[in-house]
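User: Could you write out the 3D structure of this protein bound to FE2/S2 (inorganic) cluster? I've included everything you need below.
Assistant: Certainly. Input first, then the structure.
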Amino acid sequence: MSAKERKKKSAAAAVKHRPKVPAATAVKEEKKIGAKLIPIYIMGKRYEVPEGLTIMKAMEYAGYVLIRGCGCRGGTCGACGTVYRKPGDYKLQVALACQKTVEPDMYVAQIPFFPANRALYDFARLTATPEEVFKLYPELFRCVACNSCTKACPQGIEVMDAISALKQGNIAEAAQLSFDCIQCGLCTSRCFGELAQYHMLQLARRIYGARIVHRAEHLAEMVKAVDEGKYDRCLEELKKAKEDELKKLYQEREVEPMATGEDWKPKDTTYL
Ligand code: FES
């Protein structure tokens, strides 16, 4: 049987085994919620959910109460790694449940947590040499460059390239390439070599931020000014302010323009 025929047969089987929902019930529900209902399978069980929902919202609509595998709901925290498969397609796909919208007959299952090796280290004692990273994560060299990690990344990060840079001792490159990582761990879930890429690259970013990247002088100046009490009076006044006053102050604050010179200052310099 050809791949095309297999695909057709599998899709037909999915439809055949779908339990029938009374049409009148579906129409009533669609009217109530103002959206078309589509069938999906959560952990193997069929549900009718409004189209356009994310996987996360569809699961909640179906009655699941998410106490794990659910955080920011905005594609930032990485808590909601999910696997899914479309009918007639052999491929297991991965996504963030709070971002991916459901499709008819999609099979979904959440992977809220799985153990992955995370090295223990006292960051203050690290001197940022590649050898230290190799010692903490010797399995780094188990990478077979299959690129499954990159394909699994919902952030579009070139994970394999970042791991490759780390293997070559280029911590800065590894950190920059993985800058958008949200620690969802989906790369690790698909890795042949049993690497926990997201933990390894997090270490690279920590080293890069603390030891390699150029220190911002203005930040150091600001920290010093705070330490010396330059803003104490301002902070005391803010602490005494009522909630409404704080809201007003926040809404009416003068915001630095998007494009301006380094010497920009607000009109009101009372506290500067
Ligand atoms: S819930 Fe935070 S990324 Fe999805």
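The pocket of FE2/S2 (inorganic) cluster is lined by residues 70-73, 75-80, 96, 98 (CB under 6 Å).
User: Perfect, thank you.
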